[in-house]
Amino acid sequence: MKKIVRLSFVIGVALIATGCSSQEKKVCTQNAGTWVSDHQECEYIPQDVCETAGGNFQECASACRHTEAKDGEPMTCTMQCVQVCAFENATTNNEDNKNTLIEEETNNLKLKVKYPVTGISSFDMLVKEFIMKRVNDFKEKIGEERISKNWKNLFYITFEPFTYSENIRTYKFDIMEFTGGAHDNLYFKTFTFDFENEKEIGFRDMFQEEHNPLNTIAPLAKEQLTTTLGENSMLKMGTSEKFENYEHFAPTADKLLIFFPPYQVAPWAAGPQKVQFSWEDINVVLKPPFFFGN
Questions:
Q1: Which of 125, 142, 183, 219, CA to CA, is 20 to 30 A from 80?
Q2: Is the distance from CB of 228 to CB of 219 less than 8 angstroms?
Q3: Are residues 241 and 274 in the same domain?
Q4: Is 113 domain-assigned?
Q5: pLDDT (tens digit, 9 = 90+) per residue, 191-246?
Q6: ω before 219 within 30° of 0 (cis)?
Q7: Can you tell me the distance from the alpha carbon of 250 to that of 191, in angstroms, rounded to the nearest whole number?
Q8: What is d(CA 222, CA 177) in angstroms, rounded to the nearest whole number?
Q9: How far apart are alpha carbons 17 and 9 in whole angstroms?
Q10: CA distance 2 to 17
Q11: What distance in Å separates the CA atoms of residue 14 and residue 33, rounded to the nearest whole number?
């Protein structure tokens, strides 16, 4: 039977736990799970056991979710599905501890969507409108058609939070679609939001107006990715000085992260890619509050 990769990522909200106690490992091993110590995850335990223990359950995570390129060669991603209970980001703060889960299964569709509810109406409405549009667009695209007798269309959205400061956080959404073929399709969307002033922060908002930040960032991104992926035309085009190439970003306390979906800078087998820059490295083009040392 053919197996399909459904790429999912650890979900959690705002404040990230600093570590995982031995209790989670004990729960994992006592329930015939496989403990992944480097990522504080347990594979192959039931959802009810996971959530009772305070973990975040992923029904179908990618088997190569932690795969990284080595020695300049991307590692091949095997197409199989893994049940994962993640504890690393399971701790939440009191103001941001609610998620909305949408699950639906019909004759031709299996859908599972999870997104955060923060209590800040401007952000919650922004996210909800984005989620509902993606769901409705997918349903309209597939219509009533079923892939085959044994396979339904699949649609999954999960999210991952990143914290820059008490008031500025990013939520990265991973959208997986499968409508037949060799593998699924994976897309990203990030929302960086100033919760104090209730406004979205765009990529350009972090930089001084008189500078083109890509003159600094694009060469650094290309250099980082070339180290692991080698030089190729896909990487050159995907890191060129176009703002749409850098639209999936997340500022954290010590660095700026930029995410590239499959096929932007490398073939599908290499998986999604990420580059990161310390604030000090790009300080010359930053503006407050992101200016290094601010």
A1: 142
A2: no
A3: yes
A4: yes
A5: 999 999 999 999 999 999 998 999 999 999 999 999 999 988 999 999 999 999 99
A6: no
A7: 8
A8: 28
A9: 16
A10: 37
A11: 27
What is the pTM for the complete model shown? 0.68
At 33, the amino acid letter reads: G
Percentage with pLDDT > 90 across the chain: 53
Report the distance separating Cα 223 and Cα 76, nearest Å.
22
Query: Do 74 and 58 fall within a single domain?
Result: yes
Whole-number pLDDT of residue 14: 31
Helix, strand and coil in the chain, % to nearest 5: 25, 30, 45
Alpha helices (runs of H) in the chain, residue ranges in sequence order:
22-30, 47-52, 121-142, 214-229, 233-238
| HSE-CB for 199 with a 13 A CA cutoff | 4
Q: Which of 90, 105, 128 is the last residue of a domain?
A: 90
Q: Tell me phi and psi for residue 228, to 5 degrees.
A: -100, -30
Q: What is the pLDDT of residue 144?
A: 87
Domain of 219 in residue numbering reads as 205-285
pLDDT > 90? residue 177: yes
- Domain at 196, CATH number: 3.30.565.40
Q: Please, where are the H alpha helices in 59-192? A: 121-142
Please check whether residues 178 and 249 belong to one and the same domain: no
In a domain, residue 58? The reply is yes
| Number of independent structural domains in the chain | 3
pLDDT of residue 8: 35
Tell me which of 201, 229, 256 is where a domain ends.
201
Between strands 185-194 and 199-200, the pairing is antiparallel
